[in-house]
Amino acid sequence: MPVPVTPPAHHRLLRDTVRERIHEAIMDGTLEPGERLNDEDLIAWLGVSRTPIREALSQLARAGLVEMAPNRYTRVTRPDPTQVIEALQTLGVLLGGVVRLAVPRLSGEERARVLAALDTTIVEMANHDVLGANRDALALFGMFVDACGNASLVRVCRDTMDGLAFRLRLRDLDRLVDWAGMTEQLRALRAATAAEDAIAAELATEAVHLLPA
Question: With 0-12 CB in 10 A as exposed, 13-18 as middle and 19+ as buried, what is 53?
């Protein structure tokens, strides 16, 4: 029989492992916005060659977590206040549909976890804990993504959500948007999710992300 030329399905490419580690360091704040990503430092940290590092950085750049300018710099994306509304609305377009699909599919246990996560994020929003709300809202909507039942939509969200949410990591975000209105719409999302009202939940999600009514 001919020898297979592709790796087995369970094989994990080195670049994927490298991407995951850099991704985690960006998302947990170990690598800060604007921080330069030098190949030599990454090689020393990760213990791999330059090739998988460059491949991983290119993938993270496509996801919006890394900025690359040839022969100038490679750095962690620095959130730009002028891109806040665009990032929020893009998330809203994706997540409105996700939530509409997910709400009727949630089991009792899943719904309880989602409602608890909503309660946490609502308290953070009410207390103007901007960075906490950003972090926990990403995890919250990730629960809806997991439950939506649409594999294509899951892939799109997984490829884009972190990069878009990262653009909202501004300490003064609550002064750049209608924070009180977003908090109220998050409460509406909680009520709709508890009532298993998929359409109301979709509309509330879109309103949280500043899409026009």
Answer: buried
* DSSP states of 151-172: HHHHHHHHHHHHHHHHTT--TT
Identify the H or E element spanning 54. helix 50-62
d(CA 168, CA 174) in angstroms, rounded, equals 10
Task: Report d(CA 135, CA 114) in Å as an integer.
Answer: 15
What is the reported pLDDT for 137?
96
Structural tokens at position 194: 């508890």
Encoding tokens for residue 198?
């998929």
* 3 state DSSP class of 32: coil
Q: Give residue 14's pLDDT.
A: 86
Identify residue 156 by its one-letter amino acid code.
V
- pTM exceeds 0.90: no
Spell out a b/e string for 169-191, using b for 16 or more CB atoms within 10 Å of the CB, else e.
bbeebbeebebeebbbbbbbbbe
Say how far apart CA 132 and CA 5 lie, in whole Å: 46
State the pLDDT at residue 156. 95
At 135, list the tokens: 């972090």
Task: Provide the pLDDT for residue 41.
Answer: 93
Region at 180 (left for phi over 0; alpha for psi -120 to 50; beta for the rest)? alpha
Which residues in the chain land under pLDDT 70?
A: 1-12
How many alpha carbons lie under 13 Å from residue 205 in its C-beta half-sphere? 29
State whether the Cα torsion 34-16-95-143 is positive or negative: negative
Report the alpha-carbon distance of residue 50 to residue 42 in Å, rounded.
8
